[in-house]
Amino acid sequence: xIHLDQLSFGYRKGQLLFNxxxxxxxxxxxxxxxxxxxxxxxxLLRNIVGLLYPNEGSIKVRGFDPxxxxxxxxxxxxxxxxxxxxxxxxxxxxxxxxxxxYPKFDESQFRYYLTEFDxxxxxxxxxxxxxxxxxxLIAFALACNxxxxxxxxxxxxxxxxxxxxxxxxxxxxxxxxxxxxISTHQVRDLDNLxxxxxxxxxREILLHQSLSRVSQQLRFATLNQAxxxxxxxxxxxxxxxxxxxxxxxxxxxxxxxxxRLFNAAxxxxxxxxxxxx
Length: 277
Prior knowledge:
Elements: E1 2-9, E2 18-25, E3 29-34, H1 41-49, E4 56-61, H2 71-74, E5 77-80, H3 91-98, H4 107-116, H5 130-143, E6 148-152, H6 160-173, E7 179-184, E8 196-201, E9 204-210, H7 211-217, E10 218-223, E11 232-238, E12 241-247, H8 258-267, H9 269-276
Parallel strand pairs: 3-7, 3-8, 5-6, 6-7
Antiparallel strand pairs: 1-2, 1-4, 8-9, 10-12, 11-12
Helix pairs in contact: 4-5, 8-9
């Protein structure tokens, strides 16, 4: 559904944010795009939706070139940026203006999502807090029922109960013919939501795997001692000893911890490449 081939992009010549990326994403999945601040996550998403143009390489989304911004492309993709802007109108007025651009928009779904987010549907947008405005936009994005939904740092501005509700609603909304791609540096916000992880590091895709594949190759555990243990890729002190990410040589089942996976990948990239390539 989304195909990147030899994709390179930078704002200045000779200073690329990412270089010759290859990526193939399919429908029926919620992908988490992880990376440090400044790694190029937002720029990559904006290339995919056609708001930025690559220096080299190509992008295809549902067979369309995003740069061309064709109506058939735009009506079936929705992008929630990190910095949101909503006009100074009522929610109903916003709906009347924006919903017609999306043929599969479902107003009953939109109102359901607002209720789940505890946002009064008759509100005027200027009277809402930043977090509430973010919820309005997320609810609208889900109700558009586009085949591709892309979100950049969607949980910024949401409190802890709202983040939990966000994960619940997205997981329940995913269709078999739909792809969701979510970028964040708040890694724990994607726990129990995504089924595949992408790590962007040092201008390349360091890791792109399903969580089931990650749990086969890596074990997330607590050890009394972690020093000199050749199986360990990453360790941090805990009350019980050391919380570690280690090679899963014994094929023991463990729950993937996204934050520790990200730390292991960025601090021990060569071992990650060896294990997954």
